Amino acid sequence: MESSLSDRLAGLLGGSVVLPVGEIEIDEITPQAVVRPVDRLQISELLLWASSEHMSVLPRGGGTRSGLGNVPRTADVVLDLGAFNQLVDYQPADMTATVEAGMTIATLQERLAPGGEFVPIESALHGRSTVGGVLAVGAGGPLSYAYGLPREWLIGMSVLGTNGVSTKSGGKVVKNVTGYDLNKLYAGSLGTLGVIVEATFKLLPIDPQNGMLLASFPTLSDSLAAGRKLIHSSASPMGCHSVTSGVSRRLQDSTQAASQDLGLGDEDTALLFAFFSGRSQATRRRLEEAAAILLAEGADAVQRIEGPAAKGLLRWITDAPPLLSDDSALVMKVSVQSKSSAKTSAECSDIVLFGEKPQQMADPGFGTIRLFWPKYGDIQSTHSMEPQPIMDTIQQVRQVVARYEGSAVVEQCPITTKTQIEVWGDYPDSLAIMQSIKNRFDPNGILNPGRFLGGI
Ligand SMILES: Cc1cc2nc3c(=O)[nH]c(=O)nc-3n(C[C@H](O)[C@H](O)[C@H](O)COP(=O)(O)OP(=O)(O)OC[C@H]3O[C@@H](n4cnc5c(N)ncnc54)[C@H](O)[C@@H]3O)c2cc1C
User: What's the predicted TM-score (pTM) here?
Assistant: First the structure.
Protein backbone atom coordinates (compact mmCIF):
# COMPACT_ATOMS: atom_id res chain seq x y z
CA MET A 1 0.00 0.00 0.00
CA GLU A 2 1.29 3.51 -0.82
CA SER A 3 2.30 5.47 2.28
CA SER A 4 0.53 8.73 3.06
CA LEU A 5 2.18 12.02 2.17
CA SER A 6 2.79 12.74 5.87
CA ASP A 7 4.67 9.44 6.20
CA ARG A 8 6.79 10.20 3.15
CA LEU A 9 7.62 13.66 4.50
CA ALA A 10 8.46 12.19 7.90
CA GLY A 11 10.93 9.91 6.09
CA LEU A 12 12.41 12.86 4.20
CA LEU A 13 12.56 15.52 6.94
CA GLY A 14 12.16 13.65 10.23
CA GLY A 15 8.98 12.78 12.12
CA SER A 16 9.06 15.80 14.46
CA VAL A 17 8.74 18.18 11.49
CA VAL A 18 5.40 16.73 10.35
CA LEU A 19 2.35 18.13 12.19
CA PRO A 20 -1.24 16.89 12.26
CA VAL A 21 -3.34 18.61 9.57
CA GLY A 22 -5.84 19.62 12.28
CA GLU A 23 -8.28 22.32 11.23
CA ILE A 24 -6.14 23.90 8.51
CA GLU A 25 -8.10 24.57 5.32
CA ILE A 26 -7.31 26.76 2.36
CA ASP A 27 -10.48 27.79 0.58
CA GLU A 28 -12.15 24.70 2.04
CA ILE A 29 -9.43 22.39 0.71
CA THR A 30 -7.80 20.24 3.40
CA PRO A 31 -4.08 19.82 2.68
CA GLN A 32 -2.58 16.35 2.65
CA ALA A 33 0.23 17.26 5.04
CA VAL A 34 1.55 20.10 7.23
CA VAL A 35 5.26 20.49 7.99
CA ARG A 36 7.06 22.85 10.35
CA PRO A 37 10.78 22.78 9.52
CA VAL A 38 13.29 24.03 12.08
CA ASP A 39 16.22 24.74 9.76
CA ARG A 40 16.69 26.04 6.23
CA LEU A 41 18.13 22.78 4.97
CA GLN A 42 14.80 21.10 5.68
CA ILE A 43 12.95 23.78 3.67
CA SER A 44 15.44 23.32 0.80
CA GLU A 45 14.93 19.55 0.87
CA LEU A 46 11.17 19.96 0.92
CA LEU A 47 11.21 22.35 -2.07
CA LEU A 48 13.54 20.12 -4.10
CA TRP A 49 11.42 17.06 -3.36
CA ALA A 50 8.15 18.90 -4.12
CA SER A 51 9.56 20.18 -7.44
CA SER A 52 10.63 16.73 -8.55
CA GLU A 53 7.35 15.11 -7.40
CA HIS A 54 5.12 17.96 -8.69
CA MET A 55 3.62 18.44 -5.23
CA SER A 56 2.20 21.85 -4.34
CA VAL A 57 3.63 23.75 -1.34
CA LEU A 58 1.65 26.49 0.39
CA PRO A 59 3.78 28.66 2.73
CA ARG A 60 2.04 29.73 5.91
CA GLY A 61 2.87 32.36 8.53
CA GLY A 62 0.10 33.17 11.01
CA GLY A 63 -2.56 31.85 8.63
CA THR A 64 -4.61 35.06 9.02
CA ARG A 65 -4.76 35.66 5.27
CA SER A 66 -4.72 32.14 3.87
CA GLY A 67 -8.02 32.87 2.05
CA LEU A 68 -6.50 35.67 -0.06
CA GLY A 69 -6.23 34.91 -3.78
CA ASN A 70 -7.91 32.56 -6.21
CA VAL A 71 -8.77 29.03 -5.09
CA PRO A 72 -5.51 27.02 -5.21
CA ARG A 73 -5.34 24.37 -7.95
CA THR A 74 -4.05 21.89 -5.37
CA ALA A 75 -2.96 22.02 -1.72
CA ASP A 76 -0.61 19.12 -1.01
CA VAL A 77 1.77 20.42 1.68
CA VAL A 78 1.35 23.41 3.98
CA LEU A 79 4.79 24.78 4.94
CA ASP A 80 4.49 26.39 8.40
CA LEU A 81 7.26 28.97 9.00
CA GLY A 82 6.44 29.38 12.70
CA ALA A 83 9.77 27.94 13.90
CA PHE A 84 11.71 30.69 12.09
CA ASN A 85 11.02 33.33 14.70
CA GLN A 86 14.34 34.79 15.82
CA LEU A 87 15.66 38.33 15.76
CA VAL A 88 18.90 37.69 13.88
CA ASP A 89 20.51 41.10 14.21
CA TYR A 90 19.51 44.49 15.60
CA GLN A 91 21.74 47.54 15.20
CA PRO A 92 20.03 50.48 16.99
CA ALA A 93 22.76 52.92 15.91
CA ASP A 94 22.34 51.95 12.23
CA MET A 95 18.55 51.72 12.64
CA THR A 96 18.34 48.33 10.91
CA ALA A 97 17.10 44.91 12.06
CA THR A 98 17.22 41.45 10.49
CA VAL A 99 14.49 39.02 11.46
CA GLU A 100 13.34 35.53 10.52
CA ALA A 101 10.13 35.35 8.51
CA GLY A 102 8.02 33.50 11.09
CA MET A 103 8.31 36.16 13.81
CA THR A 104 5.05 37.98 14.46
CA ILE A 105 4.89 41.73 13.90
CA ALA A 106 3.91 42.29 17.56
CA THR A 107 6.97 40.37 18.81
CA LEU A 108 9.26 42.23 16.41
CA GLN A 109 8.00 45.62 17.65
CA GLU A 110 8.40 44.47 21.30
CA ARG A 111 11.99 43.45 20.64
CA LEU A 112 12.82 46.81 19.01
CA ALA A 113 11.03 49.03 21.56
CA PRO A 114 13.83 49.01 24.23
CA GLY A 115 16.09 50.56 21.57
CA GLY A 116 13.48 53.32 21.07
CA GLU A 117 12.77 52.18 17.49
CA PHE A 118 10.11 50.42 15.44
CA VAL A 119 9.60 49.11 11.94
CA PRO A 120 6.86 51.14 10.23
CA ILE A 121 5.00 48.19 8.74
CA GLU A 122 1.36 47.94 9.73
CA SER A 123 -0.59 44.77 10.07
CA ALA A 124 -3.99 43.67 11.24
CA LEU A 125 -3.94 40.94 13.90
CA HIS A 126 -0.29 41.76 14.66
CA GLY A 127 -0.09 39.11 17.39
CA ARG A 128 -0.52 36.44 14.69
CA SER A 129 0.58 38.06 11.41
CA THR A 130 4.19 37.23 10.58
CA VAL A 131 6.94 39.17 8.84
CA GLY A 132 6.87 36.68 5.92
CA GLY A 133 3.07 36.85 5.58
CA VAL A 134 2.98 40.64 5.67
CA LEU A 135 5.72 40.86 3.02
CA ALA A 136 4.11 38.21 0.82
CA VAL A 137 0.73 40.03 0.96
CA GLY A 138 2.38 43.45 0.68
CA ALA A 139 -0.61 45.48 1.93
CA GLY A 140 -0.49 48.60 4.08
CA GLY A 141 -2.67 49.85 6.94
CA PRO A 142 -4.32 53.11 8.02
CA LEU A 143 -0.98 54.98 8.08
CA SER A 144 -0.04 54.03 4.51
CA TYR A 145 -0.15 57.70 3.55
CA ALA A 146 2.85 58.33 5.81
CA TYR A 147 4.60 54.96 5.77
CA GLY A 148 3.69 53.52 2.37
CA LEU A 149 3.64 49.73 1.90
CA PRO A 150 5.85 47.21 3.76
CA ARG A 151 8.29 47.02 0.81
CA GLU A 152 9.40 50.65 1.44
CA TRP A 153 11.13 49.54 4.66
CA LEU A 154 12.66 46.37 3.30
CA ILE A 155 16.37 46.57 2.51
CA GLY A 156 17.31 42.90 2.30
CA MET A 157 15.79 39.47 2.01
CA SER A 158 16.76 35.78 2.02
CA VAL A 159 14.49 33.64 -0.10
CA LEU A 160 14.58 29.90 -0.80
CA GLY A 161 13.76 29.02 -4.39
CA THR A 162 12.02 25.90 -5.68
CA ASN A 163 15.48 24.53 -6.67
CA GLY A 164 16.30 24.51 -2.96
CA VAL A 165 18.86 27.30 -3.33
CA SER A 166 18.90 30.30 -1.00
CA THR A 167 19.35 33.74 -2.58
CA LYS A 168 19.99 37.05 -0.88
CA SER A 169 18.80 40.34 -2.33
CA GLY A 170 19.87 43.66 -0.85
CA GLY A 171 21.59 43.55 2.53
CA LYS A 172 21.92 45.38 5.83
CA VAL A 173 22.93 48.74 4.40
CA VAL A 174 20.14 51.19 3.61
CA LYS A 175 21.31 51.91 0.02
CA ASN A 176 22.75 48.70 -1.33
CA VAL A 177 20.74 47.16 -4.17
CA THR A 178 22.81 46.43 -7.26
CA GLY A 179 20.90 45.44 -10.39
CA TYR A 180 17.18 44.61 -10.28
CA ASP A 181 15.56 45.25 -6.89
CA LEU A 182 14.31 41.72 -6.22
CA ASN A 183 13.01 42.73 -2.77
CA LYS A 184 10.30 44.68 -4.54
CA LEU A 185 9.45 41.70 -6.74
CA TYR A 186 9.06 39.28 -3.82
CA ALA A 187 7.04 41.77 -1.72
CA GLY A 188 3.39 41.30 -2.70
CA SER A 189 4.04 38.15 -4.80
CA LEU A 190 1.88 36.09 -2.41
CA GLY A 191 4.43 33.32 -1.92
CA THR A 192 4.34 32.32 -5.61
CA LEU A 193 8.05 32.91 -6.37
CA GLY A 194 9.93 31.63 -3.31
CA VAL A 195 9.79 31.09 0.43
CA ILE A 196 10.86 34.15 2.42
CA VAL A 197 13.05 33.06 5.32
CA GLU A 198 14.63 36.31 6.51
CA ALA A 199 14.19 40.05 6.01
CA THR A 200 16.18 43.17 6.91
CA PHE A 201 14.31 46.42 7.57
CA LYS A 202 15.26 50.01 8.11
CA LEU A 203 13.70 51.44 11.27
CA LEU A 204 12.31 54.72 12.62
CA PRO A 205 12.53 56.23 16.12
CA ILE A 206 9.36 55.88 18.22
CA ASP A 207 7.59 59.25 18.38
CA PRO A 208 7.15 60.69 21.89
CA GLN A 209 3.57 61.85 21.28
CA ASN A 210 0.49 60.24 19.69
CA GLY A 211 -2.82 61.89 19.11
CA MET A 212 -5.92 61.62 16.99
CA LEU A 213 -9.03 63.48 16.03
CA LEU A 214 -12.40 61.90 15.66
CA ALA A 215 -14.86 63.95 13.60
CA SER A 216 -18.46 63.15 12.67
CA PHE A 217 -19.92 64.07 9.27
CA PRO A 218 -23.39 63.68 7.71
CA THR A 219 -22.10 61.32 4.98
CA LEU A 220 -19.04 59.25 4.16
CA SER A 221 -18.39 61.35 1.05
CA ASP A 222 -18.33 64.53 3.19
CA SER A 223 -15.83 62.95 5.55
CA LEU A 224 -13.64 61.75 2.67
CA ALA A 225 -13.60 65.20 1.08
CA ALA A 226 -12.65 66.76 4.45
CA GLY A 227 -10.01 64.07 5.03
CA ARG A 228 -8.44 64.86 1.69
CA LYS A 229 -8.29 68.58 2.53
CA LEU A 230 -6.68 67.71 5.86
CA ILE A 231 -4.11 65.35 4.33
CA HIS A 232 -2.92 68.15 2.04
CA SER A 233 -2.83 70.80 4.79
CA SER A 234 0.13 71.88 6.94
CA ALA A 235 -1.47 69.98 9.86
CA SER A 236 0.12 66.90 8.16
CA PRO A 237 -1.70 63.90 9.65
CA MET A 238 0.01 60.50 9.37
CA GLY A 239 -3.19 59.17 7.82
CA CYS A 240 -6.97 59.45 7.81
CA HIS A 241 -9.67 56.81 7.75
CA SER A 242 -13.39 57.32 7.18
CA VAL A 243 -15.95 54.73 8.25
CA THR A 244 -19.70 54.34 7.85
CA SER A 245 -21.97 54.23 10.90
CA GLY A 246 -22.18 50.40 10.96
CA VAL A 247 -18.41 50.23 11.35
CA SER A 248 -18.29 52.90 14.06
CA ARG A 249 -21.06 51.18 16.03
CA ARG A 250 -19.04 47.98 15.92
CA LEU A 251 -16.10 50.00 17.21
CA GLN A 252 -18.15 51.52 20.03
CA ASP A 253 -19.23 48.02 21.11
CA SER A 254 -15.69 46.67 21.10
CA THR A 255 -13.86 46.31 24.39
CA GLN A 256 -10.93 48.37 23.13
CA ALA A 257 -13.14 51.40 22.71
CA ALA A 258 -15.55 50.77 25.60
CA SER A 259 -13.99 53.48 27.73
CA GLN A 260 -14.06 55.99 24.89
CA ASP A 261 -17.37 57.71 24.17
CA LEU A 262 -17.41 58.19 20.41
CA GLY A 263 -20.32 60.59 20.73
CA LEU A 264 -22.49 58.55 18.36
CA GLY A 265 -26.13 59.55 18.49
CA ASP A 266 -28.92 57.66 16.75
CA GLU A 267 -28.26 59.30 13.40
CA ASP A 268 -26.42 57.63 10.56
CA THR A 269 -23.22 59.64 10.80
CA ALA A 270 -19.88 58.82 9.25
CA LEU A 271 -16.72 59.13 11.34
CA LEU A 272 -13.32 60.39 10.21
CA PHE A 273 -10.24 59.30 12.19
CA ALA A 274 -7.13 61.44 11.70
CA PHE A 275 -3.88 60.16 13.21
CA PHE A 276 -0.91 62.27 14.34
CA SER A 277 2.45 61.60 15.93
CA GLY A 278 5.71 63.44 16.46
CA ARG A 279 7.26 65.71 19.05
CA SER A 280 4.83 66.72 21.81
CA GLN A 281 4.52 70.44 21.17
CA ALA A 282 4.40 70.16 17.40
CA THR A 283 1.80 67.36 17.57
CA ARG A 284 -0.47 69.44 19.84
CA ARG A 285 -0.25 72.41 17.47
CA ARG A 286 -1.05 70.19 14.48
CA LEU A 287 -4.05 68.68 16.31
CA GLU A 288 -5.45 72.17 16.96
CA GLU A 289 -4.92 73.24 13.37
CA ALA A 290 -6.52 70.02 12.08
CA ALA A 291 -9.59 70.39 14.34
CA ALA A 292 -10.19 73.89 12.92
CA ILE A 293 -9.89 72.56 9.34
CA LEU A 294 -12.37 69.73 9.95
CA LEU A 295 -14.94 72.09 11.51
CA ALA A 296 -14.54 74.47 8.57
CA GLU A 297 -15.06 71.51 6.21
CA GLY A 298 -18.46 70.69 7.75
CA ALA A 299 -17.76 68.34 10.70
CA ASP A 300 -20.69 68.23 13.14
CA ALA A 301 -18.32 67.61 16.06
CA VAL A 302 -14.60 66.99 16.59
CA GLN A 303 -13.09 65.10 19.54
CA ARG A 304 -9.41 65.07 20.45
CA ILE A 305 -7.93 61.86 21.84
CA GLU A 306 -4.35 61.45 23.07
CA GLY A 307 -2.01 58.88 24.60
CA PRO A 308 -2.94 55.19 24.99
CA ALA A 309 -6.59 55.78 23.95
CA ALA A 310 -5.38 57.12 20.57
CA LYS A 311 -3.12 54.09 20.15
CA GLY A 312 -6.03 51.76 21.05
CA LEU A 313 -8.28 53.32 18.40
CA LEU A 314 -5.54 53.11 15.75
CA ARG A 315 -5.15 49.41 16.64
CA TRP A 316 -8.89 48.89 16.26
CA ILE A 317 -9.01 50.56 12.85
CA THR A 318 -6.03 48.44 11.76
CA ASP A 319 -7.68 45.23 12.98
CA ALA A 320 -11.17 46.10 11.73
CA PRO A 321 -10.98 44.54 8.21
CA PRO A 322 -10.62 40.93 9.42
CA LEU A 323 -13.10 41.54 12.28
CA LEU A 324 -15.75 42.90 9.91
CA SER A 325 -15.01 40.21 7.33
CA ASP A 326 -16.20 37.52 9.77
CA ASP A 327 -19.80 38.75 9.39
CA SER A 328 -19.60 39.53 5.68
CA ALA A 329 -20.79 37.67 2.61
CA LEU A 330 -18.60 39.75 0.31
CA VAL A 331 -15.57 41.96 0.98
CA MET A 332 -13.95 44.00 -1.79
CA LYS A 333 -10.92 46.27 -1.69
CA VAL A 334 -11.01 49.09 -4.20
CA SER A 335 -8.00 51.25 -5.10
CA VAL A 336 -8.41 54.52 -6.99
CA GLN A 337 -6.55 57.82 -7.15
CA SER A 338 -7.14 59.64 -3.89
CA LYS A 339 -8.91 62.50 -5.71
CA SER A 340 -11.57 59.99 -6.86
CA SER A 341 -12.11 58.26 -3.51
CA ALA A 342 -15.18 60.31 -2.44
CA LYS A 343 -16.99 59.81 -5.79
CA THR A 344 -16.10 56.12 -6.02
CA SER A 345 -17.27 55.52 -2.46
CA ALA A 346 -20.56 57.38 -3.08
CA GLU A 347 -21.31 55.34 -6.23
CA CYS A 348 -20.46 52.04 -4.54
CA SER A 349 -22.63 52.88 -1.53
CA ASP A 350 -25.76 52.33 -3.67
CA ILE A 351 -24.78 48.82 -4.80
CA VAL A 352 -27.08 46.45 -2.98
CA LEU A 353 -26.49 42.75 -2.25
CA PHE A 354 -29.30 40.65 -0.73
CA GLY A 355 -31.14 43.92 0.04
CA GLU A 356 -28.22 45.44 1.98
CA LYS A 357 -25.92 48.37 1.15
CA PRO A 358 -22.22 47.95 2.01
CA GLN A 359 -20.47 49.21 5.13
CA GLN A 360 -17.31 51.06 4.14
CA MET A 361 -13.84 51.91 5.44
CA ALA A 362 -11.92 54.32 3.24
CA ASP A 363 -8.53 56.02 3.25
CA PRO A 364 -8.84 59.40 1.50
CA GLY A 365 -5.05 59.87 1.38
CA PHE A 366 -4.15 56.53 -0.15
CA GLY A 367 -7.35 56.06 -2.19
CA THR A 368 -8.33 52.62 -0.84
CA ILE A 369 -11.92 51.72 0.01
CA ARG A 370 -13.06 48.47 1.63
CA LEU A 371 -16.66 47.43 1.05
CA PHE A 372 -18.35 44.88 3.35
CA TRP A 373 -21.73 43.39 2.47
CA PRO A 374 -23.25 41.51 5.43
CA LYS A 375 -24.33 37.89 5.34
CA TYR A 376 -27.92 37.55 4.22
CA GLY A 377 -30.45 37.47 7.09
CA ASP A 378 -29.90 34.48 9.37
CA ILE A 379 -27.94 32.54 6.80
CA GLN A 380 -24.67 31.67 8.48
CA SER A 381 -23.35 29.20 5.93
CA THR A 382 -22.11 31.02 2.86
CA HIS A 383 -22.70 27.79 0.90
CA SER A 384 -26.41 28.46 0.79
CA MET A 385 -25.89 31.83 -0.90
CA GLU A 386 -26.65 31.97 -4.60
CA PRO A 387 -23.45 32.88 -6.51
CA GLN A 388 -25.18 34.93 -9.23
CA PRO A 389 -26.25 37.96 -7.10
CA ILE A 390 -22.75 38.10 -5.59
CA MET A 391 -21.15 37.94 -9.03
CA ASP A 392 -23.47 40.71 -10.23
CA THR A 393 -22.44 42.90 -7.29
CA ILE A 394 -18.75 42.30 -8.02
CA GLN A 395 -19.39 43.26 -11.64
CA GLN A 396 -21.18 46.47 -10.64
CA VAL A 397 -18.31 47.53 -8.38
CA ARG A 398 -15.82 46.82 -11.15
CA GLN A 399 -17.83 48.95 -13.57
CA VAL A 400 -17.74 51.90 -11.14
CA VAL A 401 -14.05 51.44 -10.46
CA ALA A 402 -13.19 51.17 -14.19
CA ARG A 403 -14.66 54.67 -14.70
CA TYR A 404 -12.06 55.98 -12.23
CA GLU A 405 -9.24 53.84 -13.68
CA GLY A 406 -8.83 51.90 -10.46
CA SER A 407 -8.83 48.25 -9.44
CA ALA A 408 -11.10 46.10 -7.28
CA VAL A 409 -9.97 42.89 -5.58
CA VAL A 410 -12.39 40.40 -4.03
CA GLU A 411 -10.89 39.75 -0.59
CA GLN A 412 -13.64 37.42 0.60
CA CYS A 413 -16.67 35.70 -0.90
CA PRO A 414 -18.37 32.31 -0.66
CA ILE A 415 -16.39 29.49 -2.24
CA THR A 416 -19.27 28.79 -4.65
CA THR A 417 -18.69 32.27 -6.09
CA LYS A 418 -14.92 32.22 -5.81
CA THR A 419 -14.54 29.20 -8.08
CA GLN A 420 -16.24 31.21 -10.85
CA ILE A 421 -14.36 34.52 -10.72
CA GLU A 422 -10.90 36.07 -10.98
CA VAL A 423 -10.52 37.68 -7.55
CA TRP A 424 -7.78 40.07 -8.71
CA GLY A 425 -9.89 41.66 -11.48
CA ASP A 426 -8.91 42.46 -15.06
CA TYR A 427 -5.55 41.27 -16.37
CA PRO A 428 -2.92 43.99 -16.96
CA ASP A 429 -0.91 44.14 -20.21
CA SER A 430 2.08 42.87 -18.24
CA LEU A 431 0.45 39.49 -17.45
CA ALA A 432 2.59 37.62 -20.02
CA ILE A 433 5.78 39.02 -18.43
CA MET A 434 4.52 37.99 -14.99
CA GLN A 435 3.80 34.49 -16.25
CA SER A 436 7.32 34.16 -17.64
CA ILE A 437 8.80 35.39 -14.34
CA LYS A 438 6.75 32.74 -12.52
CA ASN A 439 7.91 30.03 -14.97
CA ARG A 440 11.54 31.03 -14.44
CA PHE A 441 11.31 31.08 -10.62
CA ASP A 442 8.99 28.08 -10.23
CA PRO A 443 9.12 25.99 -13.46
CA ASN A 444 6.96 23.19 -12.03
CA GLY A 445 4.38 25.56 -10.59
CA ILE A 446 4.51 24.17 -7.05
CA LEU A 447 4.29 27.36 -4.95
CA ASN A 448 0.73 28.49 -4.13
CA PRO A 449 -0.43 27.25 -7.57
CA GLY A 450 -3.25 29.20 -9.16
CA ARG A 451 -3.65 31.75 -6.37
CA PHE A 452 -2.24 34.82 -8.06
CA LEU A 453 -3.41 36.89 -10.99
CA GLY A 454 -4.27 34.92 -14.14
CA GLY A 455 -3.87 31.57 -12.36
CA ILE A 456 -0.15 32.13 -11.65
C1 LIG B 1 -10.07 40.18 5.42
C2 LIG B 1 -8.71 40.57 5.89
C3 LIG B 1 -8.19 41.79 5.50
C4 LIG B 1 -6.91 42.16 5.89
N5 LIG B 1 -6.43 43.31 5.44
C6 LIG B 1 -5.17 43.67 5.73
C7 LIG B 1 -4.61 44.84 5.20
O8 LIG B 1 -5.25 45.55 4.42
N9 LIG B 1 -3.36 45.19 5.54
C10 LIG B 1 -2.64 44.39 6.37
O11 LIG B 1 -1.49 44.71 6.66
N12 LIG B 1 -3.13 43.29 6.90
C13 LIG B 1 -4.38 42.90 6.58
N14 LIG B 1 -4.88 41.76 7.09
C15 LIG B 1 -4.04 41.02 8.01
C16 LIG B 1 -3.14 40.02 7.34
O17 LIG B 1 -3.67 38.90 7.92
C18 LIG B 1 -1.68 40.27 7.70
O19 LIG B 1 -1.34 41.59 7.40
C20 LIG B 1 -0.63 39.48 6.97
O21 LIG B 1 -0.58 39.92 5.62
C22 LIG B 1 -0.78 38.05 6.94
O23 LIG B 1 0.22 37.51 7.78
P24 LIG B 1 0.20 35.96 8.10
O25 LIG B 1 1.51 35.66 8.74
O26 LIG B 1 -1.02 35.60 8.86
O27 LIG B 1 0.16 35.34 6.63
P28 LIG B 1 -0.59 34.03 6.12
O29 LIG B 1 -2.06 34.21 6.20
O30 LIG B 1 -0.01 32.85 6.76
O31 LIG B 1 -0.13 34.05 4.60
C32 LIG B 1 -0.59 35.07 3.73
C33 LIG B 1 -0.02 34.77 2.33
O34 LIG B 1 1.40 34.92 2.37
C35 LIG B 1 2.05 33.70 2.00
N36 LIG B 1 3.21 33.56 2.93
C37 LIG B 1 3.17 33.55 4.28
N38 LIG B 1 4.42 33.45 4.77
C39 LIG B 1 5.25 33.39 3.71
C40 LIG B 1 6.67 33.25 3.56
N41 LIG B 1 7.48 33.19 4.60
N42 LIG B 1 7.18 33.19 2.31
C43 LIG B 1 6.38 33.26 1.22
N44 LIG B 1 5.03 33.39 1.29
C45 LIG B 1 4.48 33.45 2.52
C46 LIG B 1 1.01 32.60 2.18
O47 LIG B 1 1.24 31.52 1.34
C48 LIG B 1 -0.28 33.35 1.86
O49 LIG B 1 -0.50 33.39 0.48
C50 LIG B 1 -6.14 41.34 6.74
C51 LIG B 1 -6.66 40.12 7.16
C52 LIG B 1 -7.93 39.75 6.74
C53 LIG B 1 -8.46 38.42 7.21
Answer: 0.94
